[in-house]
């Protein structure tokens, strides 16, 4: 029997959505290890949403507070988590492979002297040992690993571990942690437009490439995304990011973000291997391209051959109709 | 400004992946190897920081097989001053062992700045930089897309979901580089010639066994060859029906 520590994320005092995925993944591991899930939150004060975590399978929610923990404090967080792991005798520690998680998990792993499996897409327990699957070589191969010894330290690719409700009568615990934030200080977050979903976390991604012809034409994709009523983000190929049409934050692919949405719509994107690296684990892929031989059709579940300037507005209209 | 850059030899991203007979590794036959693209940003940034400081040294360090000498020569041709190859056979899955080997080499050299890529495009480990920082007890900022250094104080920007984090830290520090930080230069012919004469030290290294055992390396399940729903806007209604009724994603 061993317990699992789920390390969650908050911003502006509210839990981020990816936290439900982390609790879900941790629950799966804990069930296989016959242990409990402790959900850990680092914050400046009580975090909004903490009381909801029992629904996703957390047995206990631990909030560690420090005045410096309002913003991400890499060293302060890493120290507090490592101390908790050592003290709690956990069999596994689970992070989100978000921007913060990918920064934090290696620090904690190094402090524990443990290996880290980052950005995993599947997990299991086999003969008592945690085994993991991670895409490597730009998603062109899957590496399965067995963790030798404990704890297993892992981070979960966003959008892969769909939150599952498995209610537990969770308890809440809170403690103040002393100590400095560390030598690396986050001064501010320059926020993107309010309410904008990040491509790495949106359940639906509508991406555009050079086929859009000019930056202003991305409006047709923004309208399609808007038709999904707050569930979609607009992504981009590297070609259009390099051309300065779209911000790098929106780039999908090997040198951009890895996304795994429920629905990925590639519009005017040829489907270069480096683009596929960032989106091939999407659940359903739709391609709209005027070239019937474009490589994107080889990975797409559904394709429409045609001029995007005719197809996309029609699609937007149909999606709006669905919403009624 | 004394700067170290950790660089990795990786298969070109165009590589067709073939699994070796052991079922656990890449079949390297015919594979072209390159300097990890994120490490190009790191080398470029090191050169720029040294140029800005007006004096200093850029040392590139690679842990890898004898052939990684070529990778080091590429960085020397870009303008790095000298190279160190921590020569080993085969790298394993546990990034902490890589970090330990690199940290042991970096430890006593008093670098002002240690740069790495945010991740290697072969193993996608995304971890060696911050692990090196922890092992050396240095401040660390990862996935840096913008950097300003003045009088030992530094500010960096890194992309996070839905925004950009502005981070302050002091030197010495460990940074990992993201796309957008700079445009790496191409080695000029003069640089390539000069690189041949630059010092490259080879040190045999034996990393520890690590604690991640490789069970298998497999090709991902082929995505079902997609169906072309139709042509032009006439196909949209059918696409929406399929997304609702067959794929059940709407
Ligand atoms: C080291 C490295 C890293 C890279 N990283 C990335 C990465 O992270 N992400 C990435 O995306 N790329 C990356 N690339 C670049 C990649 O190789 C391709 O160059 C890029 O993805 C092409 O972008 P695109 O599909 O928008 O443009 P193109 O390849 O030019 O494709 C445009 C497509 O639009 C279609 N089209 C044109 N007009 C219309 C129309 N009216 N209606 C419908 N379709 C139309 C065309 O048929 C074509 O298929 C990387 C490359 C390298 C070498
Ligand atoms: N074998 C290696 N030799 C030198 N540097 C490495 C090696 N492996 C990883 N690195 C550095 O660490 C960064 C992150 O790699 P990784 O954590 O493996 O994705 C790379 O971009 C390199 O800068």
Which key terms come to mind for this protein?
heterodimer; A: 324 residues; alpha/beta; Rossmann fold; seven-stranded parallel sheet; 18 strands; B: 250 residues; globular; binds flavin-adenine dinucleotide; binds adenosine monophosphate
Report what the structure shows.
The complex is a heterodimer of chains A (324) and B (250). Chain A is α/β, with parallel strands linked by helices. Chain A folds into 2 domains: 4-176, Rossmann fold; 204-322, TPP-binding domain (Rossmann fold). Chain A is built from 8 helices and 18 strands. Chain A has helices spanning 18-32, 74-88, 99-112, 219-227, 238-242, 273-279, 296-299, 308-323; strands at 4-7, 10-11, 14-15, 37-43, 60-65, 92-96, 116-120, 122-126, 129-136, 141-147, 152-156, 171-176, 185-191, 204-208, 232-236, 263-267, 284-289, 302-305. In chain A, β14, α4 and β15 form a beta-alpha-beta unit. Chain B has one domain: Rossmann fold, CATH 3.40.50.620. Chain B contains 6 helices and 13 strands. Chain B has helices spanning 37-53, 68-78, 95-106, 128-136, 189-197, 236-245, and strands spanning 2-6, 9-11, 33-35, 57-64, 82-87, 113-117, 140-150, 153-160, 163-170, 173-177, 200-204, 212-218, 227-231. In chain B, the strands form 2 sheets. A 9-stranded mixed β-sheet of chain B has the order 9-8-7-10-6-1-4-5-11, with helices on both faces. Classes of the chains: A alpha/beta (324), B alpha/beta (250). At the A-B interface, α2, α3, β7, β9 and β10 of A face α3, α4, β7, β8 and β9 of B. Flavin-adenine dinucleotide (FAD) binds at residues 209-211, 237-240, 251-256, 268-270, 272, 274-275, 278, 289-291, 294, 307-309 of chain A. Residues 209-211, 237-240, 251-256, 268-270, 272, 274-275, 278, 289-291, 294, 307-309 of chain A line the site of flavin-adenine dinucleotide (FAD).
